[in-house]
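[audit] Reproducing an earlier prediction to check determinism. Same input, same settings, fresh worker. If the tokens differ from the archived copy the diff job will pick it up downstream; this log only records the rerun itself.
[audit] input (482 residues):
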Amino acid sequence: MNAAPDPHPAGQPTTEAPRDLVGIGIGPFNLSLAALTHPLTELDTAFYEQRPAFHWHPGLLIEGATLQVPFLADLVTLADPASHWTFLNYLKTRERLFPFYFAERFHIQRAEYDAYCRWVSENLPGLHFSHQVDAVRWNPERTLFEVDFTQLDADGEAEALGRTYTKNVALGVGTEPFVPEPLRPLAEAPTVPVIHSADYLDHRERLLAADHITVIGSGQSGAEIFLDLLRHRPAGHEKIHWLARTEAFAPMEYSKLGLEHFTPDYTRYFHGLPERERDRLVPDQWQLHKGIDADTIAAIHEELYQRTLHGGWPDATLTPGVSVRTAGRVATTKVELHLEHRQQGTRSRLTTDAVILATGYKERPIDRMLAGLDPYIRRDSTERPRIDENFRLVLDDSVAGNIYVQNAERHTHGVGAPDLGLAAWRSATILNSLTGKDPYPQPQRTAFTSFGLHPAGPHDHRAPHPAHNRAGERGTMVKLQG
């Protein structure tokens, strides 16, 4: 197969020496990979990110909001607790170890996690911000991947074009806000605020000034935003609706054995299931990752309860089991939501002055970036990329290199794909596979639960010689098909 035509003009900056690994995107997951790569001096790596600096969900860094995983789920600790890039070492460099020790916090604030990741991103070599990756192609003549990028200036405009060659690629482009179809036209017009929760803090003052506010979504973000709005509205005049499609404002599964669904043991078990069984499981496990933590639920109830102490009830309506059928504008200042309650089989209308969409995120599309690789990518029965146990896209036998994916493998690896607690383990698995060694030895067992009658044991993370690489992946394909 011939190489794709060169879209970049002659004379562009080009890195001629091939790299061992190029990372695309610098969110927490690829930042974890970069941090664990740092001491492996034999590897030549580079990571590219189109944003000018690291930021982690800046619109949701609400005061007091905490991570839903312990601080040990930092970028590196669960793979290498002696790493320079641990959260505890970050505290040490800031002379904050003793205050943290006395604070006795196991779950840190989101803003502190964001600051920690930014510290890593500002001190770790090999990270290139303001670099937008445009395309990834396989060059059969050089047996390397070509990665084309655009360097951006301070205003986000194109400044220069470049290309680098690499033996391996790690995709960590993250997710993007999901806006339900009925509300998409309203979210794209600025007249009445219809804001995704990802941008909440940027619009918070405008939202608080609205006469009536509606929050849609029953997950952690929706709960935190509802609580923040409630705390800043006068008693008796709250004028907030909180709507959710789920049958209840349900707590997240946080029992000790329930948390074992976020272990390497369960990830391996899930990967070994037939495709149809994996597809059945994922939506049924929503409460493992889409519920609300118990402390937030308790804080909401306490805030509502306090507003009843002098008689009366707060003007706040919490209604689960409701979906938005359609929506439209009323004049230029209000939004009308057409609602349906599934259990009752009833419909109603709600007029509001502002809408906050806590409707979650979806995987960022990578088809355009990987268009040149489409003929090489092997897909499942619903045209999703096949991903092997070591987080590699299953490619055609003619491609000797590997493309690793981070947080794009829920359909093959389960609910732990977006979980911060598995970031370091996944990064270590990728590096063990890439190097063909075990720079980060993996634990033999991570859960008390035995998932299945024949639990899957730890896989050999050593990457086979390229000549034998695809044969192993063909075996994975058979397993995926059940």
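[audit] rerun output stored. Observation attached for the diff report: Confidence is low (pLDDT under 50) at residues 1-12, 460-482.
[audit] end
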